[in-house]
Design brief:
Elements (H helix, E strand, L loop, with lengths): L5 E2 H7 L6 H9 L3 E3 L2 E2 L5 E2 L4 E6 L2 E7 L9 H7 E3 L7 E4 L4 H9 L4 H5 L4 E4 L5 H13 L3 E7 L8 E6 L1 H12 L23 H13 L5
Parallel strand pairs: 8-9, 9-10
Antiparallel strand pairs: 1-4, 2-3, 2-5, 5-6, 6-7, 10-11
Helix pairs in contact: 1-2, 6-8
Protein backbone atom coordinates (compact mmCIF):
# COMPACT_ATOMS: atom_id res chain seq x y z
CA UNK A 1 0.00 0.00 0.00
CA UNK A 2 1.46 3.34 -1.08
CA UNK A 3 2.02 6.18 1.38
CA UNK A 4 -0.50 9.06 1.35
CA UNK A 5 0.65 12.03 -0.70
CA UNK A 6 -0.53 15.31 -2.22
CA UNK A 7 0.68 17.43 -5.13
CA UNK A 8 3.49 19.79 -4.22
CA UNK A 9 1.79 22.86 -5.76
CA UNK A 10 -1.41 22.16 -3.80
CA UNK A 11 0.52 21.69 -0.57
CA UNK A 12 2.56 24.88 -0.96
CA UNK A 13 -0.62 26.87 -1.53
CA UNK A 14 -2.44 25.14 1.36
CA UNK A 15 0.33 25.98 3.87
CA UNK A 16 0.39 29.62 2.70
CA UNK A 17 3.82 29.65 1.06
CA UNK A 18 2.12 31.06 -2.06
CA UNK A 19 -0.97 33.21 -2.19
CA UNK A 20 -2.51 31.24 -5.07
CA UNK A 21 -2.13 27.70 -6.36
CA UNK A 22 -1.26 29.05 -9.81
CA UNK A 23 1.67 30.95 -8.27
CA UNK A 24 2.90 27.71 -6.71
CA UNK A 25 2.57 25.93 -10.06
CA UNK A 26 4.51 28.70 -11.80
CA UNK A 27 7.28 28.49 -9.18
CA UNK A 28 7.62 24.76 -9.78
CA UNK A 29 7.84 25.26 -13.52
CA UNK A 30 10.52 27.91 -13.02
CA UNK A 31 12.63 25.50 -10.97
CA UNK A 32 12.18 27.37 -7.69
CA UNK A 33 10.89 24.34 -5.76
CA UNK A 34 12.95 21.30 -4.77
CA UNK A 35 12.01 18.10 -2.96
CA UNK A 36 14.93 16.32 -1.34
CA UNK A 37 17.31 18.50 -3.35
CA UNK A 38 15.77 17.68 -6.74
CA UNK A 39 13.72 20.10 -8.83
CA UNK A 40 10.04 19.32 -8.50
CA UNK A 41 7.28 19.39 -11.08
CA UNK A 42 3.97 20.91 -10.00
CA UNK A 43 2.30 17.48 -10.04
CA UNK A 44 5.03 15.74 -8.04
CA UNK A 45 3.73 14.13 -4.83
CA UNK A 46 4.99 15.06 -1.38
CA UNK A 47 4.77 12.86 1.70
CA UNK A 48 5.15 13.25 5.44
CA UNK A 49 8.80 13.93 6.26
CA UNK A 50 9.80 15.26 2.84
CA UNK A 51 12.20 18.22 2.87
CA UNK A 52 11.13 21.10 0.65
CA UNK A 53 13.29 24.02 -0.49
CA UNK A 54 11.49 27.01 -1.98
CA UNK A 55 13.26 29.96 -3.60
CA UNK A 56 11.28 33.18 -3.03
CA UNK A 57 12.45 36.76 -3.61
CA UNK A 58 16.07 35.62 -3.66
CA UNK A 59 15.85 33.66 -0.39
CA UNK A 60 15.55 29.93 0.27
CA UNK A 61 12.92 28.66 2.69
CA UNK A 62 13.52 25.18 4.11
CA UNK A 63 10.35 23.29 5.07
CA UNK A 64 9.59 19.78 6.29
CA UNK A 65 6.18 18.27 5.55
CA UNK A 66 4.40 17.40 8.81
CA UNK A 67 0.80 17.27 7.60
CA UNK A 68 -0.70 16.67 4.16
CA UNK A 69 -3.11 19.44 3.20
CA UNK A 70 -4.95 20.24 -0.02
CA UNK A 71 -7.16 23.07 1.28
CA UNK A 72 -5.75 26.43 2.37
CA UNK A 73 -5.61 26.90 6.15
CA UNK A 74 -4.87 29.72 8.57
CA UNK A 75 -1.34 30.65 9.60
CA UNK A 76 -1.34 28.72 12.94
CA UNK A 77 -2.34 25.43 11.28
CA UNK A 78 0.02 26.07 8.36
CA UNK A 79 2.92 26.45 10.80
CA UNK A 80 2.15 22.97 12.19
CA UNK A 81 1.81 21.40 8.75
CA UNK A 82 5.06 22.89 7.43
CA UNK A 83 7.97 22.82 9.89
CA UNK A 84 10.15 25.81 9.05
CA UNK A 85 13.86 24.91 9.18
CA UNK A 86 15.06 28.02 7.38
CA UNK A 87 18.40 29.13 8.86
CA UNK A 88 18.11 32.27 11.00
CA UNK A 89 18.39 35.54 9.07
CA UNK A 90 17.05 39.04 9.17
CA UNK A 91 13.41 38.81 8.09
CA UNK A 92 12.88 42.52 7.48
CA UNK A 93 11.56 44.25 4.37
CA UNK A 94 12.03 48.03 4.13
CA UNK A 95 9.55 49.40 1.58
CA UNK A 96 10.12 52.85 0.09
CA UNK A 97 7.83 52.76 -2.94
CA UNK A 98 5.33 55.35 -4.14
CA UNK A 99 1.80 54.07 -3.58
CA UNK A 100 -0.47 51.24 -2.44
CA UNK A 101 -0.28 49.39 -5.76
CA UNK A 102 3.51 49.25 -5.59
CA UNK A 103 3.43 48.24 -1.92
CA UNK A 104 1.10 45.34 -2.71
CA UNK A 105 3.13 44.26 -5.72
CA UNK A 106 6.32 44.31 -3.62
CA UNK A 107 4.73 42.23 -0.87
CA UNK A 108 2.24 39.95 -2.59
CA UNK A 109 3.18 39.95 -6.28
CA UNK A 110 5.29 37.35 -8.05
CA UNK A 111 8.30 36.64 -5.79
CA UNK A 112 6.78 39.04 -3.26
CA UNK A 113 8.57 39.76 0.01
CA UNK A 114 5.72 38.53 2.24
CA UNK A 115 6.23 34.90 1.25
CA UNK A 116 9.97 35.18 1.82
CA UNK A 117 9.56 36.86 5.22
CA UNK A 118 7.19 34.24 6.60
CA UNK A 119 6.00 33.97 10.19
CA UNK A 120 7.92 36.35 12.46
CA UNK A 121 8.85 38.75 9.66
CA UNK A 122 8.68 42.54 9.83
CA UNK A 123 7.67 45.09 7.20
CA UNK A 124 8.97 48.64 7.67
CA UNK A 125 6.73 50.87 5.56
CA UNK A 126 7.71 54.39 4.52
CA UNK A 127 5.08 54.77 1.79
CA UNK A 128 1.95 56.89 2.06
CA UNK A 129 -0.97 54.59 1.28
CA UNK A 130 -3.67 56.06 3.52
CA UNK A 131 -5.16 54.82 6.80
CA UNK A 132 -7.79 52.49 5.30
CA UNK A 133 -5.27 50.77 3.01
CA UNK A 134 -2.79 50.54 5.88
CA UNK A 135 -5.34 48.78 8.10
CA UNK A 136 -6.19 46.31 5.34
CA UNK A 137 -2.49 45.67 4.71
CA UNK A 138 -1.80 45.14 8.40
CA UNK A 139 -4.62 42.57 8.57
CA UNK A 140 -3.28 40.61 5.59
CA UNK A 141 0.26 40.65 6.96
CA UNK A 142 -0.94 39.58 10.40
CA UNK A 143 -2.62 36.54 8.83
CA UNK A 144 0.85 35.47 7.69
CA UNK A 145 2.42 36.25 11.08
CA UNK A 146 4.16 39.39 9.76
CA UNK A 147 4.28 42.63 11.77
CA UNK A 148 4.17 46.13 10.27
CA UNK A 149 5.74 49.40 11.38
CA UNK A 150 5.16 52.79 9.71
CA UNK A 151 8.22 55.03 9.59
CA UNK A 152 8.40 58.65 8.45
CA UNK A 153 11.67 59.28 6.63
CA UNK A 154 13.69 62.46 6.10
CA UNK A 155 15.36 60.87 3.08
CA UNK A 156 15.76 57.52 1.40
CA UNK A 157 19.20 56.04 0.88
CA UNK A 158 22.49 56.11 2.79
CA UNK A 159 21.47 59.35 4.51
CA UNK A 160 17.98 58.11 5.36
CA UNK A 161 16.88 58.85 8.90
CA UNK A 162 13.85 57.28 10.53
CA UNK A 163 12.05 59.86 12.65
CA UNK A 164 8.94 58.26 14.05
CA UNK A 165 8.34 54.51 14.02
CA UNK A 166 4.69 53.81 14.77
CA UNK A 167 3.22 50.35 15.29
CA UNK A 168 1.90 47.79 17.70
CA UNK A 169 4.14 47.21 20.75
CA UNK A 170 5.55 43.82 19.63
CA UNK A 171 6.34 45.18 16.15
CA UNK A 172 8.23 48.08 17.70
CA UNK A 173 10.16 45.68 19.93
CA UNK A 174 11.14 43.66 16.85
CA UNK A 175 12.36 46.81 15.12
CA UNK A 176 14.43 47.89 18.11
CA UNK A 177 15.93 44.43 18.64
CA UNK A 178 17.09 44.33 15.04
CA UNK A 179 18.41 47.89 15.16
CA UNK A 180 20.42 47.29 18.33
CA UNK A 181 21.69 43.80 17.52
CA UNK A 182 25.51 43.68 17.90
CA UNK A 183 27.68 42.92 14.91
CA UNK A 184 25.22 44.05 12.25
CA UNK A 185 26.85 45.26 9.05
CA UNK A 186 23.86 47.43 8.16
CA UNK A 187 21.56 49.11 10.61
CA UNK A 188 18.38 51.03 10.10
CA UNK A 189 19.53 54.60 10.90
CA UNK A 190 17.19 55.55 13.74
CA UNK A 191 17.49 59.14 14.89
CA UNK A 192 14.85 58.91 17.61
CA UNK A 193 12.31 56.34 18.74
CA UNK A 194 9.29 58.60 19.24
CA UNK A 195 6.92 55.71 18.79
CA UNK A 196 3.41 55.21 20.03
CA UNK A 197 3.36 51.92 21.94
CA UNK A 198 0.01 51.75 23.67
CA UNK A 199 -2.13 48.63 23.81
CA UNK A 200 -4.90 50.14 21.70
CA UNK A 201 -2.92 51.98 19.03
CA UNK A 202 -4.91 54.00 16.50
CA UNK A 203 -3.79 52.40 13.23
CA UNK A 204 -4.09 55.73 11.38
CA UNK A 205 -1.26 57.31 13.40
CA UNK A 206 1.64 55.91 11.36
CA UNK A 207 0.19 56.92 8.01
CA UNK A 208 -0.64 60.38 9.31
CA UNK A 209 2.95 60.75 10.56
CA UNK A 210 4.33 59.82 7.14
CA UNK A 211 1.97 62.21 5.38
CA UNK A 212 2.89 65.07 7.73
CA UNK A 213 6.59 64.36 7.31
CA UNK A 214 6.31 64.52 3.53
CA UNK A 215 4.55 67.88 3.75
CA UNK A 216 6.96 69.38 6.27
CA UNK A 217 10.27 68.09 4.85
CA UNK A 218 10.27 70.28 1.69
CA UNK A 219 9.88 73.38 3.89
CA UNK A 220 12.89 72.63 6.11
CA UNK A 221 16.45 73.59 5.15
Amino acid sequence: MSEPSVRIDSWLWAVRVYKTRSAATTACRAGHVRIGGEKAKASQPVRIGDEIRVRIAGFDRMLVVRQLLTKRVGAPIAALAAEDRTPPRERVALLAVRDEAQVRESLFGADGAAAALGDGGLVVLTSTIGPAAARALASELADAGIARVDVAMDAIGDAGVADMPVGQPEALRQLRRRERAPGREKRLPMRAHLAVSVDELIEDAGQRAIACQQRIAPLTP
